[in-house]
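Regression test case RT-17, inverse folding.

Input:
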């Protein structure tokens, strides 16, 4: 049997933070907005250079994989201990694991 990648607490942290971010998007009127969008995509051929100039109304989207960093693990532990913090605004001082100086540009965990 394969062990799960994420603990119950990690999943709870994601659920709580998702609710917070969704509430902020709803309050800002950004949920349910319909806009005409056309997405054309191609992978970079490994050159590291942007292949062309953008046209009017075009935007470049970079898709990056997010791994679990030590700040995410710290957030799970803070939630488990009942500490309250605001992941979206950064409020909470030392109670906010995302704002601790020890986790500026944190390395990935073994899961990440």
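Golden output:
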């Amino acid at each position: 049997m394969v062990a799960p990648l994420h603990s119950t607490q990690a999943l709870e942290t994601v659920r709580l933070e998702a609710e917070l971010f969704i509430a902020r998007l709803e309050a800002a009127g950004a949920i349910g907005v319909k806009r005409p969008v056309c997405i054309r995509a191609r992978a970079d051929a490994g050159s590291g250079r942007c292949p062309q100039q953008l046209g009017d109304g075009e935007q470049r989207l970079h898709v990056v994989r997010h791994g679990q960093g030590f700040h995410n693990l710290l957030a799970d532990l803070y939630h488990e201990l009942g500490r309250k913090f605001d992941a979206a605004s950064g409020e909470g001082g030392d109670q906010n694991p995302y704002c601790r100086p020890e986790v500026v540009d944190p390395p990935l965990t073994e899961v990440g």
